[in-house]
Amino acid sequence: MTRSCAGPCLLAAFLLAAAAPAIAGDISSPAGNAKLAAFDIVRTTVSAEDDALLFRMEVSTSAGATVPTPTGEVAGSTVYSYVWPTSLDSAQVGFDAGQGILALAATAHPDFDDTPLEDETGDGDAGNDGALWHSHWVVLVPDESCGPGALKVRDIPDGTTPTLPKTWPGLPILLDSPGFTPTIDGEAVEVRVPISTIGGQRGINYDGVTAALRVSASMHNPLLCVVDVFDVASGDLSLPGRSD
């Protein structure tokens, strides 16, 4: 049985996730369900540790070793991601309330840089680091223009002035670049999130997803679509994990 879920299946799961029951503990997943071993989820956890939540995803092998092939263009380029969908409200990280599914993501994309406040390579240029794994908060919503039942990172309509985090990178989507540096070691990806940055909340529901997103040719509305789901930790994106 595969853990992948795309199209209407994925959309339905996201819409039902907030109402699904959750149990304390991690999410274990059978190996061999993803076409890329670096995105084949075997265990997903979010644990409260002192003043932080530790988001962790374990895969079959070589976490973070596979990144998109550069195209030389932003439009049409690909983003690879390790994603933790959560029950957190979008307002808890600085967006307006109720905007969609808030997810933490570790992403890599060699064709553009969306962390203008960070210099991940330490070379004095904060605009050339997109190929390195880095973190984002993203708000996910359905959009049929991305494909039947597909999801996207929520666009900011022209002429609107939504509430945005101070570390919003300036793209016309609900994406934040909070500067939480992912740690990648062997088969695991970890991101440590200070609890103070999410309104002090320690207990959250969560799931795990590995996926590819693509920048649209239009470069806006939609700008960033989920185009390929490699694996889903729970199998149905029901957010069964609980961090407390």
Write the layout of secondary structure elements.
Blueprint: H1 7-17, E1 23-24, E2 27-28, E3 41-49, E4 52-59, E5 78-85, E6 101-108, E7 134-142, E8 151-153, E9 175-176, E10 183-185, E11 188-194, E12 205-206, E13 209-215, E14 224-232, E15 241-242
Description:
- This protein has 244 residues and is mostly beta strands.
- The protein has one domain.
- It contains 1 helix and 15 strands.
- Strand 13 and strand 14 form a beta hairpin.
- It starts with 6 loop residues before the first helix and ends with a strand.
- Whole-angstrom Rg: 16 Å
Order of helical and strand elements: HEEEEEEEEEEEEEEE
Measured by DSSP, the beta-strand proportion falls in: 25-35%
- Helix content range: under 10%
Distance between the termini: 29 Å
Largest sheet report: 7 strands, antiparallel
Return the domain count. Answer: 1
Low-confidence stretches: 1-9, 15-21
Total helical segments? 1
